[in-house]
Every structure is written in structure tokens, then in C-alpha cells.
Amino acid sequence: MNFEWCGGKGREERSKKQEARSRKQEARSKNLEQGIHYSPFTIHHLAFTLHTLPFALMSDIVIRAESLGKRYRIGERERYLALRDILARAVSAPARLFRPRKPSSPNGDPTHIWALKDVSFEVCQGEVVGIIGRNGAGKTTLLKILAQVTRPTEGHARLKGRVGSLLEVGTGFHPELTGRENVSLSGAILGMRKKEIERKFDEIVSFAEVEKFIDTPLKYYSTGMQMRLAFAVAAHLEPEILLVDEVLAVGDVAFQKKCLGKMEYVAKQGRTVVFVSHNMPAVTRLCQRGIVIEGGKVILDSDSLEAARRYSSSGVGTSAERRWDDVNSAPGDGVARLIAARVISEGVVAESVDIRNPVSVEMDFLNLKPGADLVSAFSFLNGDGVILFVSADFHESRWGSKPRPRGVFRAKCTVPGNFLAEGQVSVCVEVSTRNPQYEIHFLERDCISFQVVDRGLPGSVRANWGRNMPGLVRPALEWENLYLG
Amino acid sequence: MSTTGAPIPLTDVPVIDITPPSGWLDLNFRELWQFRELLYFFVWRDIKVRYKQTAIGAAWAVLQPLMTMLVFSLFFGRLAKIPSGGLPYPIFYFSALLPWMYFAGALQNATNAVVGQQHVITKVYFPRLVLPLSAVVSGLLDFAIGFVVFLGMMVLYRVHPGKAILTFPAFLLLAVATALGAGLWLSALNAIYRDVHYVVPFLIQFWMFASPVAYPSTLVPERWRWLYGLNPMAGVIEGFRWALTGKGQPPSLLLAASAGAVIVVLIGGLFFFRKMEGTIADVV
Predict the structure, then answer these.
(1) How many Cβ contacts (< 8 angstroms) between chains A and B?
(2) What is the CA radius of gyration of chain A?
């Protein structure tokens, strides 16, 4: 059996602990199986463990989900049966009254859907796990089951510790009550004791920055103030397990920054956090581990970076090369038509590019108008849809800014190595005319994409730095260290 | 990416088991006790919200029984000449209206307790029993206010209840239990079939006439009084009247029947509510 740890030191230490662990396990009686956490690690994570927790931890499992499933009934609910209905049915179809109920068909039952099916995972104490997936994948359902808001149809879960659930901002707020009263009420609903609320009251109010308005009814607050107050209450929850559902999706940028900051703080305190979000940067920043859910099933349970990649790529689904064989259906107009586009690295079409290597993007297009003054441009976007940079061929030596004859052209642009950041990069391909009027002939968004991968090998900017390196780009810069005496 | 703090030692932490709804129903009073502060907060909130921005506020708690008492005294007492067992009509009616108004209000609030709080139920966990329970408890404040007025009336009409008044808390408890029992059934049903909430006012009207509020229970023939007593409010109202005024029917078969009915309704209600909790979470 392969044992891997929730966190810990090197391989040698691990095997020693392994023996101690198995000895302890035998000695332990029934109890909660404080078992060993199995989770697939990438090479990255193993390399990083040297940089993680300085303590030798034998983390306990605090959340264990086994084959959780949730089935919902969809469509029209049966009407409230009145005596009238029963009588009507008895008259029209008497036999139906006595026929036994048909058992619901397994698949293809039009009245039921499985929002979650066979979901199993384990979370260790202190882990911050991100749960990601498309809308409707089942993430919120999973969180609701863990928060005990709804019960699973099958399966079993066990949680160890007090659970705080942040499924929305402002749970329990009542507009007629004052801010002060709402803090008490909301705190109580979220699980704080009366004494705890009193103790933290001032902190909560100052975090929300609503000291002046604390005694006015909530309905007079602006939305921003309400949200800040709501989050302030929630942020001061101190449960062992925190379940957070896309709370950060609401609010302005300042508010989101504050929320993220607080969540980071909470995570650093060693609490276990399960975080559902669409905000990939937040997920990769806060979470060590990511679980991707699609169609109610877990499709990936790995470190957060890989999970984020898997989630983004499954949505976009573009590849490193695309071709349009029929010119008439190809993108473009009477002046220019896109025939092909591709990503090239080390001389071949590549879906995955080493961060140290230069990467080229090419487009092949047909120019139909002799003497056209065309401009080719590429826009590079990251996995979140943020435009990293754009580039056009104005100064290209052969045909840049020069009238072109009819025929097929290939425009190629090379991005130097050690410039792009890790992650998914998608490319937007464009050909347009500048003079006399700016006219776009074709603009293909998400035309081609590739993954920039950094394995920490010699020559990369990352070197062997284990932690997350933020940034939209990752240029290799000149560094100088001088000893000045 | 990594945590720098030492993990919180996991000693004495609650272990939560999440399973699909099963046949065995655990009423889990211990959990309810753990959430007692939340119950307090819900009651406090209900009361606060009820009286915020009201013109007459707490006076409403008094006006309703008073006005009804006046109408009853005039039409049932003075005009219809219903026997009152030697009590002045206002006392006769008010002593019954006090627990009755409490019950009617508590039942209405309890019925809506779950549906009204759907925005909270779908986001946070707490034992759902807290909701109808808080509705039933928050009505006690209005009852207390009305009771004070009643004491004033007793002084006015020079009514001496004697030792019987010591049993009054028991009857109050019976009233609370009835409200809770019926409230549990209705709130669970209302969450699933939303039109239950429209049936309740009618139900309460009917129930009032089936209870000895407007008339004494002596009007019911001796033979049928036990059947009449199956209406738990019959025992409550008679008991209240007897405890508060010293006159009327002392506890007997009627009360025994009522108490029995209350126990059945309450326990049935508790189990039904717990059983429906799973469904409620999905449909509310």
C-alpha cells in the first residue's frame, strides 16, 4: 500500500513515522479512524514539502466523505392531493388506485437527477481545499451536505470539529433590527456563543467600519455596508472547519481583497477550510489542494494548480492547432480569411511549453485583395481571461506595413522564454487593415491555447522555490548583489 | 500555500455524522440543549421585530383579548345568557381568552416558522426544532402582559382564586405543549404543502368553538365530556378558568383526556417533524 502524508518532512522521516503510525493504529481501539490521508501528489508538491510545515505533523482527518450522493426531484411537484382529486382519479381510472407504485427507473428517469454521485474524499486538519467546477456541477450541493443544510441520498460523511458555514453573506440579517442587534443575531445563527459575540463585538464592528451606524436599523445601510458587516461577523467565526461558498463573488474589489486577506489569515491559523469558488487566482493562492467536480462527480483531486488548469482547460477546450480547410467557412471576409493557427515550441506543435523556452504562434491566412495593407496581431490572455499583452507586425521587415499581393501568408510571432507565467495561455488571432479606416477582417478569440509549465528545472526563474509565484508574466531579469562593506 | 501555524489540537471536539435519512429517528434533545442560546436569540428577535415601528406596540397584546371579551360578554353573556357558573362575564371570558389568544397566536407563528425562515434554513445548520419552539415561546410575552391586565381585573371584580391558582403554571405548560404539538405538525406540513398556512385561521376559528372559550364545558352532556376532552384546549381552558378564578370545573376526566391527547399530539409532532426535516431542507 502506498502511504502518503498530509504534510511532513522528507522521505526518510516519513518511513520512520510510517512504522510508528502503524504501531499506534494497532493499539488504537474502535474510535474514529484517524487514518492516513491518501491523495495524489504531483512532482511539484513532493518537491515543495521541504518548504512546508516546519512541524512534524501527523494530521488527523477532519472531514471524510464516502460515496456521497444527492438526488433531486425535478419538474412539477405533485399537486397537493385533495379529496376531490382522489375521487376524480377513482372515477376516471379506477385500476390505477390499486396498482403498486412503479419503482423509479435507474437511468434516464426524467423526474430525478443526481446532483452528486459517489463523491469521496478526505481532508486533513489544517488543509485548505478548493472545490471547483462549472456552474451546476454540484459544488454547492456538496457544501450544503457537509454543512448539514441538506441530507445526502446515499453515502456517509463524518466531520470532526465545529463547523462554520459561510454559504452566503448576511445569513440571518433582519432589516428592521439595528446593526448591533443583527451582529448578535447573525453571530448566534452562525454558531457563536453569546459570550463570544460580546467579546468580539468591537472587533467585528471596526472590521466592518460601521462604528457610527451600529445603532441604526439595517434597512438604512447601503449594500456595501451590509455586506461588510455580514462578512465581519462571518470572519470572526472560529470553527475548526470552515465551509465557504463563493462568498467572495459579491462585493467590490476592496471588499474582495479584505475577504481574501481574512481567509488567508484564517487558513494560516491552522483551521481546515473547504472553499468553493470560481475565482481561480483565489483558489490557487489560498488552497493547497483542489478537487474538480463535474456533473456531480469528482474528476480530479490534486494540488490546486493542477486542478485549476484542469478546470480551465475543460471549459475552453481549444488545442494548440486549428485548421479551416474550407475557405468559404473560414473566419474572415472578402479581404482576408484565416486558414490555420498553431502554437510551436522547439520546432513542433506543442500543447505544453516549458517556461524557459521561447514559444511561437503562427497564423496562416489567405489574402484576397491585391495591394491590401494588412496587419496581423496576436493577443495573449491568461486562464482568467486577463489580457497579458498584444503584439502586431507593424515593424516586420518583409511585409509589415507594406501592400501585399494575393495569396497565402504565414505570420509568426515569437515570445521569448522566461517571460510568460505558468498556467494556461490562450491566443486571440486577428488580421485587420489600418488605412484608410481601421477594419477587422477576422478576430478569433480563444483560437489556440497552450500551457506554460515550470518544473523548477535549472534556468527557470522559479529555480527551486516551492511556493506560489504570482504575476501575470514572469520575466527573467538581471539581478545584481553587491556587498558594500 | 502552506500554513505556518500549529494546528489546533483536536480534543473534545464534536463529531458530526452525516447520513441519509433513515428509519430510526433520534430526537436529539442534547443537540437542542446545545443550541439553547440560539433559541433565546430567535425569541428575542421575534419579539423585537414584532414591536418595532408599531404605533401601539405592546398594547396590542392587551387590546385583542379585551375587545373580544367585550364582544363575548355582550352577545354571549348579556344577550344569549350563557351560564357562567357564577362568575362575572368579563372574568369568565377573559380567563379563557388569555390562554386561547396565546394558543392561536403561537399556532399561527409556529405554522409559518419554518417557511418564514427559509433563507436561514438553506444556509446554516441548527436543529430545525428551534424554529417552531421559538414561535411558541415568543408568544408567552404577550401572554404575560395580558396576565397582568387580568390580575388587575381580578382585583376590580374582587375575585379570589384561592389555592387553585398555584396549579396555573401546569395549565400554562399544557397550553404551550398543545401549541407546540399542533405547531410541529402544521409547520412541517406547511413547508411541504404551502397552502396549509391558509387553512390555519379557519382551523383556529373552528377550534375555538370546539373549546370552552365562549361557553362553559358544563354545556356538554356528562356522557360526552371525555370525548370533548380529547380536544386538548378544552382541558387547558377549563383548567385555566378553574385555577385563576377558583370557580368552574376542577380537574377531572376532561382534563385527563386532554392531557392524554396533548401527549399524543406532541410526541407524534416531534417525530413527524424530525422525519420531515430531510424533505423540508429540499423543498423549503
Answers:
(1) 148
(2) 29
